[in-house]
């Protein structure tokens, strides 16, 4: 089944922006002269001063990545101003609320005015170019307005997903010393309220850099407002004008920071700059989704993740698209919500995560089939490997075997899609992200960094830069080089493993580091471990990913309690709740196993390979355990495996 090939249908190739011949020509042109190729693509965004320099990249030494370095622009102008003449009255954002009876449409002209009002208010509060602004908002139009208002005044936004805890919010604000926080009274998800302002108040107890808080009224729930610090959005923007001079930004000035998890330490602030990111967002959104004027495009991600940044806001708006923003969840009020929204808003392009597909698949075809999906043209998948079974269900049941599926592989660090089929050019294989986009040069290397040829499996690296690549880790350029360019010298290491088949197709097999991917949410096992050991009853903890039917991976924690503490069911529940509170509900452990000891080498290093295998029930072939300090603990853990 995994070897099925779904050829590009002739009628799709005939009308697509890019067919196989055009793709081949693009790949060849980029390979021959990258500078000329990207000079040809840079006009897809609006420049105040056109760049004369295109690519200046060095993956060695201190690592320096620059694109369009002498160009000047403002990202909000590309997303708003330049569309006003032609599409001022076109809908830019369709907002669909958590409550199926609430929705809204915002035209480009209205969005421009709202962005300018907020930008003016921000300037009045003293926000200047280069300042960091934290955004902690639910999926409401204000989230897009806040992002673009930051871009307007040259402030660097740092969005924190609304599901993160006060602690997680605080550490992100502290790391980049944000001076302004933009939040809402409450969020809504699946019929429940999320106390955003209350969480923010708790976080701000340890965030002295924050001078002002702007609060959007969303649910109308009661919140505390601190005089002098907290301002209602409506009040502070009320008297402001609907135009605002955009700050002139250099192409390499930062646009945003987004925190993401790595194998060690605290989440790192991935920094993206303005020119290259915007070109990449526009290029990939238009070509991967084969976007056409007037189409309704829906990406179900949250703006708190990179997918929301690039494929709800910057890419679609740069391309003058109508982008749908959804506040709710796929399972509420019932499990047909996605398809009901597709019918209601006549969605043409639909982009979601495998975890949602797997969850909906359980309920069979009826909830899908009862809604009209005839407007759908392209389906997309992102965030984790999609298993062939889920792929085929998506293709057959949701897309009626009519819509190509683009399985898009990329990362927070890559800014946009790197490996994906182009719907009119590349035959699909269920479960494979297929081929790199023009200009992207993946390779597989062995653990010593030797490049492997042909059909093989290895560590996925990218050999050369593309415009949307991250430029640094905020405040820690040394860690940037260390994290991404030192494992395999002179290559960008993705942290993923992959297989390449005889057709050159890539099959991403998952992370090869200590990062796990739970329902498409990326998490460092070290973060969950440090949350656990912060509990007074816990002496030591080791966290690994375990296979999970719906979520792809679940969180499996081995916990050693302090001497004298009894391992009880109430304590297990308490620890689960503790991690949720420390990090957020996305980090809820799926299993906690009491571990009187952990398998360690004689030098004290935890053997995670063994723990991963036990959690996955792969206890045959555990490999050599004779070097362990206490080989007996392994059998003990196997015998008491949870679930
Ligand atoms: O392991 C890969 C997986 O998600 C990781 C990146 O996570 P994040 O930075 O949160 O960005 C997610 C949205 C782009 C990757 O290292 N991943 C992402 N897309 C795919 C994928 N794995 C397999 N197939 C994909 N299409």
TrEMBL record:
<feature type="binding site">
    <location>
        <position position="496"/>
    </location>
    <ligand>
        <name>ATP</name>
    </ligand>
</feature>
<feature type="domain" description="AMP-dependent synthetase/ligase">
    <location>
        <begin position="81"/>
        <end position="462"/>
    </location>
</feature>
<dbReference type="InterPro" id="IPR025110">
    <property type="entry name" value="AMP-bd_C"/>
</dbReference>
<keyword id="KW-0547">Nucleotide-binding</keyword>
<feature type="binding site">
    <location>
        <begin position="383"/>
        <end position="385"/>
    </location>
    <ligand>
        <name>ATP</name>
    </ligand>
</feature>
<dbReference type="InterPro" id="IPR032387">
    <property type="entry name" value="ACAS_N"/>
</dbReference>
<keyword id="KW-0479">Metal-binding</keyword>
<dbReference type="InterPro" id="IPR011904">
    <property type="entry name" value="Ac_CoA_lig"/>
</dbReference>
<feature type="binding site">
    <location>
        <begin position="189"/>
        <end position="192"/>
    </location>
    <ligand>
        <name>CoA</name>
    </ligand>
</feature>
<keyword id="KW-0460">Magnesium</keyword>
<feature type="binding site">
    <location>
        <position position="522"/>
    </location>
    <ligand>
        <name>ATP</name>
    </ligand>
</feature>
<feature type="binding site">
    <location>
        <position position="535"/>
    </location>
    <ligand>
        <name>Mg(2+)</name>
    </ligand>
</feature>
<feature type="domain" description="AMP-binding enzyme C-terminal">
    <location>
        <begin position="527"/>
        <end position="605"/>
    </location>
</feature>
<feature type="domain" description="Acetyl-coenzyme A synthetase N-terminal">
    <location>
        <begin position="25"/>
        <end position="79"/>
    </location>
</feature>
<dbReference type="InterPro" id="IPR042099">
    <property type="entry name" value="ANL_N_sf"/>
</dbReference>
<keyword id="KW-0436">Ligase</keyword>
<dbReference type="InterPro" id="IPR020845">
    <property type="entry name" value="AMP-binding_CS"/>
</dbReference>
<dbReference type="Pfam" id="PF00501">
    <property type="entry name" value="AMP-binding"/>
</dbReference>
<feature type="binding site">
    <location>
        <position position="538"/>
    </location>
    <ligand>
        <name>Mg(2+)</name>
    </ligand>
</feature>
<comment type="similarity">
    <text>Belongs to the ATP-dependent AMP-binding enzyme family.</text>
</comment>
<feature type="modified residue" description="N6-acetyllysine">
    <location>
        <position position="605"/>
    </location>
</feature>
<feature type="binding site">
    <location>
        <position position="511"/>
    </location>
    <ligand>
        <name>ATP</name>
    </ligand>
</feature>
<dbReference type="Pfam" id="PF13193">
    <property type="entry name" value="AMP-binding_C"/>
</dbReference>
<dbReference type="InterPro" id="IPR045851">
    <property type="entry name" value="AMP-bd_C_sf"/>
</dbReference>
<feature type="binding site">
    <location>
        <position position="580"/>
    </location>
    <ligand>
        <name>CoA</name>
    </ligand>
</feature>
<feature type="binding site">
    <location>
        <position position="533"/>
    </location>
    <ligand>
        <name>Mg(2+)</name>
    </ligand>
</feature>
<protein>
    <recommendedName>
        <fullName>Acetyl-coenzyme A synthetase</fullName>
        <ecNumber>6.2.1.1</ecNumber>
    </recommendedName>
</protein>
<feature type="binding site">
    <location>
        <position position="307"/>
    </location>
    <ligand>
        <name>CoA</name>
    </ligand>
</feature>
<dbReference type="GO" id="GO:0003987">
    <property type="term" value="F:acetate-CoA ligase activity"/>
</dbReference>
<dbReference type="Pfam" id="PF16177">
    <property type="entry name" value="ACAS_N"/>
</dbReference>
<keyword id="KW-0067">ATP-binding</keyword>
<keyword id="KW-0007">Acetylation</keyword>
<dbReference type="InterPro" id="IPR000873">
    <property type="entry name" value="AMP-dep_synth/lig_dom"/>
</dbReference>
<comment type="function">
    <text>Catalyzes the conversion of acetate into acetyl-CoA (AcCoA), an essential intermediate at the junction of anabolic and catabolic pathways. AcsA undergoes a two-step reaction. In the first half reaction, AcsA combines acetate with ATP to form acetyl-adenylate (AcAMP) intermediate. In the second half reaction, it can then transfer the acetyl group from AcAMP to the sulfhydryl group of CoA, forming the product AcCoA.</text>
</comment>
<feature type="binding site">
    <location>
        <begin position="407"/>
        <end position="412"/>
    </location>
    <ligand>
        <name>ATP</name>
    </ligand>
</feature>
């Amino acid at each position: 089944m995994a070897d099925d090939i779904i050829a590009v249908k002739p009628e799709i190739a005939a009308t697509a922006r890019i067919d196989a011949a055009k793709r081949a020509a693009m790949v060849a042109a980029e390979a021959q002269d990258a500078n000329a190729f990207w000079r040809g693509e840079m006009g897809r965004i609006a420049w105040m001063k056109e760049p004369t320099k295109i690519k200046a990249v060095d993956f060695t030494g201190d690592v320096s990545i620059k694109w369009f370095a002498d160009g000047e622009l403002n990202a909000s102008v590309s997303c708003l101003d330049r569309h006003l003449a032609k599409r001022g009255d076109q809908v830019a954002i369709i907002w669909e609320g958590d409550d199926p009876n609430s929705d809204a449409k915002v035209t480009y002209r209205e969005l421009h005015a709202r962005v300018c009002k907020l930008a003016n208010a921000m300037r009045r509060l003293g926000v200047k170019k280069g300042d960091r602004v934290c955004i902690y908002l639910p999926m409401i139009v204000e989230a897009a307005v806040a992002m673009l208002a930051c871009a307007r005044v040259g402030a660097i936004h740092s969005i924190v997903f609304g599901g993160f805890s006060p602690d997680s919010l605080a550490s992100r604000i502290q790391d980049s010393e944000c001076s302004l926080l933009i939040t809402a009274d409450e969020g809504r998800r699946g019929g429940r309220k999320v106390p955003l302002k209350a969480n923010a108040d708790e976080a701000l107890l340890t965030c002295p850099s924050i001078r002002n808080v702007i609060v959007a009224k969303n649910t109308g729930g009661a919140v505390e407002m601190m005089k002098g610090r907290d301002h209602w959005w409506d009040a502070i923007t009320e008297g402001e004008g609907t135009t605002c001079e955009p700050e002139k930004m250099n192409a390499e000035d930062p646009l945003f920071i987004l925190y993401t998890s790595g194998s060690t330490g605290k989440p790192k602030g991935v920094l993206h700059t303005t020119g290259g990111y915007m070109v990449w967002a526009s290029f990939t959104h238009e070509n991967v989704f084969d976007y056409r004027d007037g189409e309704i495009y829906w990406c179900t991600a949250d703006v708190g993740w990179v997918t929301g940044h690039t494929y709800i806001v910057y890419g679609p708006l740069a391309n003058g698209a109508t982008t749908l923003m959804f506040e709710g969840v796929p399972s509420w009020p019932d499990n047909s919500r996605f398809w009901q929204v597709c019918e209601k808003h006549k969605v043409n392009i639909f982009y979601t995560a495998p975890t949602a597909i797997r969850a909906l698949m359980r309920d069979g075809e009826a909830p899908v089939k009862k809604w009209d999906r005839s407007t759908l043209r392209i389906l997309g998948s992102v965030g984790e490997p999609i298993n062939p079974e889920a792929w085929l269900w998506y293709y057959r049941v949701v897309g009626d075997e009519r819509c190509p599926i683009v399985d898009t592989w990329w990362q927070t660090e890559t800014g946009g899609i790197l490996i994906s089929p182009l719907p009119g050019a590349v035959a699909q294989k269920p479960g494979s992200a297929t081929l790199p986009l023009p200009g992207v040069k993946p390779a597989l290397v062995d653990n010593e960094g030797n490049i492997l040829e042909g059909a093989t499996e290895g560590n996925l690296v990218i050999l050369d830069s593309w415009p949307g690549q991250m430029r640094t880790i905020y405040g820690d350029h040394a860690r940037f080089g260390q994290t991404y360019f030192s494992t395999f010298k002179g290559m960008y290491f993705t942290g993923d493993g992959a297989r390449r088949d005889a057709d050159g197709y890539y099959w991403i097999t998952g992370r090869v580091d200590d990062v796990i991917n739970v329902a498409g949410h990326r998490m460092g096992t070290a973060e969950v471990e440090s949350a656990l050991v912060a509990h007074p009853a816990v002496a030591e903890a080791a966290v690994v990913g375990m296979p999970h039917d719906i979520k792809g991976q679940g969180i499996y924690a081995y916990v050693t309690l302090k001497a004298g503490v009894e391992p009880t069911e109430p304590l297990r529940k308490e620890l689960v709740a503790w991690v949720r509170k420390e990090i957020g509900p996305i980090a809820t452990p799926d299993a906690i196993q009491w571990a009187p000891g952990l398998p360690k080498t004689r030098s004290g290093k935890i053997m995670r390979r063994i723990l991963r295998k036990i959690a996955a029930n792969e206890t045959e072939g555990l490999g050599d355990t004779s070097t362990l300090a206490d080989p007996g603990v392994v059998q003990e853990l196997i015998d008491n495996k949870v679930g």
